[in-house]
Amino acid sequence: MKPIITFGEIMLRLSTPGFQRFIQADHFVATFGGGEANVAVSLANYGLPSAYVTRLPDNDLGHKCEAELRKYRVDTRHILWGGDRLGVYFLETGAVSRGSKVIYDRAHSAIAEVQPGMIDWEAILKEAGWFHWTGITPAISQGAADVCLEAIQTANRLGVTVSCDLNYRKNLWKYGKKAGDVMEALVAGTDIILGNEEDAEKVFGIHPEGVDVTQGHVEGAAYESVGRQLMARFPRARKVIITLRGSISASHNSWSGVLWDGEQLFQAPTYQITHIVDRVGGGDSFMGGLIYGLLTYDDDQKALDFAVAASCLKHTIYADFNLVTVAEVEKLMQGDASGRVSR
């Protein structure tokens, strides 16, 4: 199978222990994470060849980050070394009625200062089968947006499938451009579009009618209109997928998804995740599962079901990476959610 390439920023994640608030914590737990890196780890964990492209500072933290990716069998040969710092994000995990909080410290990170021409996309993508990006990358800086567009255009020219997670982050768009203005050209070159219940609205003003995610129930069929509108706006798109998260509390979410292929709406089962361990990376684990499913199964329904089950399991795993096996995901797909001890 041809490699799947992902591109974006990976950061040092500093989390308060347990459910402590920032003001309580006297130390932080250090891990690494970032949308596209999380996807690469999922795919490598499922046994698919995956490579991650980013720019890291040539120092001990940068090399520790690379070692962490290599530990999970992600190909890091295409990492660009340079810049002064690794981006950081701080996480306070919420519980029950108190939501989680994230504080970013990623200004002037190595990847934020990347410029067109620095990455040889032709060499990286010529043997690839898939390229994945997210809306987080073009939000970092104009340079990162331009380099992402370079990659997409190269992938289009070489016939490489392109996927994106719209991933709107309002706190990142700070360099004078609106998300919709920058994302238009990028999504125009994308074949598979993923978003959550708010992304299409926040980025492109596209929304379903009569949906309130704060009520803990999201009706999947309402999102067929979102799929239709996105495909009308971006004719290259072959599939539009929406993750459906109903937020009963910070500790209890319902979780599902729908896939629109231009003719038919597929809907996955809904899971009740009642004791969330860590929801960060949930959407990335969905994307990793979806790419695996689309490449492995000749069945959009099964691919969607795999993505939802994989990301459901991610909510039980601490830190950004989804460290579950294909067998564990397929077991949940088959209805075994007992959590019994495996002996």
- The share of residues in extended strands comes to 15-25%
Main sheet characteristics? 9 strands, mixed
User: Structural class of the secondary structure composition?
Assistant: alpha/beta
* Distance from first to last alpha carbon: 33 Å
| Whole-number count of domains | 1
Rounded to an integer in angstroms, the radius of gyration calculated over CA atoms is: 19 Å
In the CATH hierarchy, the architecture is 3-Layer(aba) Sandwich
Broad shape: globular
Q: Please, what is the average pLDDT? A: 94
The CATH H-level superfamily is Ribokinase
According to CATH, what is the topology?
Answer: UDP-N-acetylmuramoyl-L-alanine:D-glutamate ligase
CATH class: Alpha Beta
Q: Helix and strand string, N-terminal first?
A: EEEHEEHEEEHEHHEHEHHEEEEHHH
**How many E strands?**
15
The low-pLDDT segments are: none
Number of helices in the DSSP assignment: 11
Percentage of residues assigned to helices: 25-40%
Structural key phrases:
343 residues; alpha/beta; UDP-N-acetylmuramoyl-L-alanine:D-glutamate ligase; nine-stranded mixed sheet; four-stranded mixed sheet; 15 strands; globular
